[in-house]
Amino acid sequence: MEPTPALRTRLRKLLNETIPAGGTEADTNFLDEDIDLLLQEADSIYAATSTGWMEKAGLLQGDIESYSTGTEKYDLTSLKDRLEHALSMAQQYAKMAEASGTSTGSFMFQVRPPEVL
């Protein structure tokens, strides 16, 4: 696909990677060049989104999962849960790309030569 500003914005939204107000693309996990590459290598927006979510899964790192200060305790989302979410999103968009009929694939056909007199 040919990247356009509208496609970049849509892909960022589907990847939950919108640029924050007053921020830049550097404030997200994907620079515009990364978004463009995802779009160029995909046949549909859903295929690009699936690949993007797989890349996001690979970027996850172990963070603090809970902490406490005094009598207050805070629990954050675990790395396992975030990884499962990213991979399930990738799978969901891969299914959407397949259903839209724009995913790459192949088919076979048979050619029969004509009968010659």
What are the secondary-structure elements, in order, as H or E?
Answer: HHHEEH
Helix content estimate: 40-55%
Contiguous low-pLDDT stretches (5 residues minimum) are none
Derived structural class = mainly alpha
Biggest sheet, strands in spatial order? 1-2
* Distance linking N and C termini: 49 Å
Task: Count the beta strands.
Answer: 2
What profile does the largest beta sheet have? 2 strands, antiparallel
Radius of gyration: 21 Å
General shape: elongated
Explain what the structure shows.
Helix content is about 45%, strand content about 5%. It is mostly helical and about 120 residues long. A two-stranded antiparallel ribbon has the order 1-2. β1 (about 65-70) and β2 form a beta hairpin. The longest helix is centred in the C-terminal third of the chain and has 21 residues, at about 80-100. It is elongated and about 95 Å long. The chain starts with a helix and ends in an 18-residue tail after the last helix. The model has no long low-confidence stretch (mean pLDDT about 85).
Q: Can you tag this structure with a few keywords?
A:
single chain, 117 residues, mainly alpha, 4 helices, two-stranded antiparallel ribbon, 47% helix
Can you give me a brief rundown of this structure?
With 117 residues, the protein is mainly α.
Layout: helices, strands, pairs:
Elements lengths: L4 H10 L17 H9 L4 H15 L6 E4 L2 E4 L3 H21 L18
Antiparallel strand pairs: 1-2
Helix pairs in contact: 1-2, 2-3, 3-4
